[in-house]
């Protein structure tokens, strides 16, 4: 079981999800009302109907929720029609996403909301699916033939939901050898290679620029914390505080060093180079800094409640100046989180929080990423997010979007009912799976 964020004096605790079969009477009527928000995103009634049936299939008790079994489960379902709907029909996806964000803001929005960035892998057997390659798959913890998506989740005191996505396209996919495959998969001609942190930066800037989802904090792992593109995107969001992981070999200074300029000759021309002054100290890795901190600099704090009781860590923090290309860069908080026991391990974070920020803020933010992990677990296992068999670029994005909507719809039911969670093991979809509320039962 993933931990729930519980910290003394924390900003807020994110609730867990639970629905029971008794809660979903009139499920299809509720879903139809929910879908009415998106009517204008489709020009014709046929794809609008497939959109409804697709989400009904995702919320059904089917074990495998790919297109064919979902279409056959729905009364009057059409396999080929649903395939065309997900890959070829015209949707106004931008309008759908903006409408969705408005709904999330209305039901989960909070001025102190948290935007959480993470990636997730989808294992594939063949080589024809868009963006597929042998690459690191986080869900397996190893290199595998897979697709990788970069996602943004939103969390508040009212709940959590995935709110945006980007498909990571490996650089090899943009070479001439892949031209025919790109065309076959309907990859937009204007699309160019972007790293995962660059994709994440795009999402953060887009959500901030759109202005529908209020958030005060951003949390991400070390892939993104090590990226100037991503950190710059956060800095552009005035008033937003971040806590992002960094690798142990990240270099920094405890005191910002003085820099000077020296001259050198290059191809006969005299040039200037900015360097750290000779009397300046060499930068330390964050791992080395942690080892030299006195015991008085560490504080034991409870981060969360787990299935086996409270989870506690030791925390330390220091104001440091990061080192980039052997020169001082931004000044940040370095936060170190250490496990307890005879063989402790350290995790490292940086934050743009002001110098006056209390330690409890960092403790709370360090334990909040469970919300995006829980979103992946629930949406993949219960709603078929990982069951797709589409190969085209539009199809991947549309399937992910409908999966995100299905997950949020179940949260919508919970929030509308005003039900308080009574079980730590509740999962999204649990109230529908096994309840017998499949379309075939209702429409017959």
Automatic annotation (TrEMBL):
Coiled coil: none annotated. Residues 38-309 form the Transposase IS701-like DDE domain. InterPro entries: IS701-like, IS701-like_DDE_dom, RNaseH-like_sf. This is Transposase IS701-like DDE domain-containing protein. The lineage of its organism: Eukaryota, Fungi, Dikarya, Ascomycota, Pezizomycotina.
């Amino acid at each position: 079981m993933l931990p729930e964020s519980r910290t003394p004096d924390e900003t807020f605790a994110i609730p867990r999800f639970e629905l029971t079969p008794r809660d979903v009477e009139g499920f299809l009527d509720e879903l139809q009302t929910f879908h009415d928000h998106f009517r204008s995103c489709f020009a014709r009634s046929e794809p609008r109907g497939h959109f409804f049936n697709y989400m009904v299939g995702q919320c059904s008790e089917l074990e495998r929720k790919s297109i064919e079994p979902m279409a056959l489960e729905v009364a009057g379902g059409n396999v080929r029609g649903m395939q065309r709907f997900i890959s070829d029909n015209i949707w106004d996806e931008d309008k759908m996403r903006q409408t969705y964000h408005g709904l999330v803001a209305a039901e989960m929005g909070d001025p102190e909301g948290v935007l959480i960035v993470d990636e997730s892998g989808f294992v594939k057997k063949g080589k024809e699916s868009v963006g597929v390659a042998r690459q690191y798959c986080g869900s397996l913890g190893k290199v595998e033939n897979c697709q990788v998506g970069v996602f943004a989740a939103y969390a508040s005191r009212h709940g959590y939901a995935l709110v945006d996505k980007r498909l990571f396209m490996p650089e090899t996919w943009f070479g001439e050898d892949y031209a025919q495959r790109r065309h076959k998969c309907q990859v937009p001609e204007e699309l160019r290679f972007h790293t995962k942190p660059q994709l994440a930066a795009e999402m953060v800037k887009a959500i901030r620029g759109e202005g529908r989802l209020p958030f005060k904090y951003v949390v991400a792992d070390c892939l993104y914390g090590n990226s100037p593109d991503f950190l710059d995107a956060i800095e552009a969001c005035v008033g937003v505080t971040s806590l992002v992981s960094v690798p142990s070999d990240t270099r920094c200074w405890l005191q910002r060093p003085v820099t000077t300029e020296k001259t050198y000759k290059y191809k006969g021309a005299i040039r200037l180079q900015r360097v750290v002054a000779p009397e300046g100290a060499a930068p330390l890795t964050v791992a080395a800094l942690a080892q030299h901190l006195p015991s008085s600099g560490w504080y034991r704090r409870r981060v969360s409640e787990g299935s086996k009781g409270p989870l506690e860590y030791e925390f330390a923090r220091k104001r440091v100046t990061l080192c980039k290309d052997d020169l001082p860069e931004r000044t940040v908080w370095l936060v170190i989180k250490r496990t307890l026991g005879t063989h402790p391990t350290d995790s490292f974070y940086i934050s743009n929080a002001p110098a006056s920020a209390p330690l409890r803020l960092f403790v709370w933010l360090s334990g909040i990423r469970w919300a995006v992990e829980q979103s992946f677990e629930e949406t993949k296992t219960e709603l078929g997010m990982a069951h797709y068999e589409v190969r085209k670029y539009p199809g991947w994005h549309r399937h992910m979007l409908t999966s995100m909507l299905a997950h949020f719809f179940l949260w919508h039911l919970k929030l509308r009912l005003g039900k308080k969670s009574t079980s730590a093991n509740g999962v999204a979809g649990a109230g529908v799976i096994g309840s017998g509320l499949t379309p075939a039962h209702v429409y017959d």
